[in-house]
Records
---
Amino acid sequence: MIYNMTNGPSTLYSNLLRRNTNAELQNRLAQAEQELATGVQSDIYASLGASASEALALNAALDRDAAQVTANTLLGGRFDSMSRALGTIRESVQPAFDLAVANSTVGGSTGSGLQLQARVALDALIGQANATHAGLALFSGSASDTRSLTPWDQTSTSSGETPGAAIGALLAQGMGTGVEVTARIAEMDALFDNADGSFDALFDTGGGSAVTVNIGDGETLRLDVQANDPAFRDVLQGLAMLAATDAQEISDPSAYADWVGAATARLASGMEGLLDSQVRLDAGSARIDAANTRMQDRALVYSTRVSDLIGVDSYQAATEITALETQLQASYAVTARLSQLSFLNYMG
């Protein structure tokens, strides 16, 4: 008898076919296990097709908003630090202001402490004005890498002299009469008016300008509270007038009242201006918080949509894994049985 040896595939081909089938099943099983572990489709673009562009756009928007929220958080921290610093300045200046008001005329019972109290407040103001947040000077505007104000007894790099020495020399021209006091007040006004940049030079403010920042969705915010603002200059002038000289040494009662009265008026104006600046900073901080809340809410919506697009149903993935494992085990079992077959088993 002659057997037909050409019916069906060869043993070698059958082995290769089963091997390829097993390899494909193993790959599909690995992908299914990955999808179950990550909750994301293993081949997003193949799965989504035309919808892949939507997923890309949403992910780009999520990344952009996340970066903006991070930047806003840093900016909001700076606004809050500036507001707290202004509050501390006002609290530090208030005792000197109260003392000046109480000693507006010669012979006040607490007049002897006025110069010392003004100096304490002056040092506190300059210290707070030179505070930093995340390495950036709070009140230097765009020149955030420079100190906002030169301390009273330190040399200004711009003017080459200390603020205390410069103002002391100005007052040394005479404070004994009403005419002299009026002249000194005018000179102090001219210095602190900063029309010619003399204040910036004396206190070495760095000359920074206001900064406009984007807080998301095209909304902008101005960071424009600086140490050379009129409010700062008014408070500094009032304190400098009281700290640079002992007002009790002005023998003319009218001249004394003019000097202390002018200093008190500058303090009152400056304190009001600092309060306005603090209110603006708090309002800016609230706008930053609102912008972050808006973007975080939007991120939740976008993330949900992205999850709907690229996510994998865990139950479906687990079911597919079970089916693939069963299929692979069956294939292995068939392969093992076939490998045990021998032509000799049928002879006999």
---
Amino acid sequence: MTITIIGIGLIGGSLAITLKENGFARRIIGVDASRDNLDKAVRRRLIDEDMGLEEGVAAADVIVLATPADAMLELLPRILGQVNGKQTVIDVGSTKERLLEAVQRHPNRGRYVATHPMAGTEHSGPEAAIPNLFDQKCTVLVDVDDSDPDAVKLAERLYRSIPMRIVCLDRLSH
């Protein structure tokens, strides 16, 4: 499976290491606004290659949005506008209300699964990425009834492969 991770910092980079090491991902593509972050991620072998946004989305089975929340608000509708009915988009941000509102009526809303893996450290950037950051932690899947069942199943498989515990909540409970 090919996974494109947009935002190669602590969370995106740690997810890249984990999914590559556990065999869930055959290929990891990195997309980041910072050339320096991409160069560090390639040197550390967090990603197999870097691409621009459109190219990275087109090449992926799963697209992981791991940017700051404000960037997610801009990027998620663009990404959903590009995906096909077989691709799954997940985000790993902690805030959901504004993000879910931004794509509520998007024609490809079903391809998006809102997730919040509860893990992190005080460090940031690709140099802070570590394997096992997510092991045995909890991830919350939010408003799964608005996502296509196959997209939810793929997100669950991804998180179980880490392994993480999964909890499903609506956006108000989250």
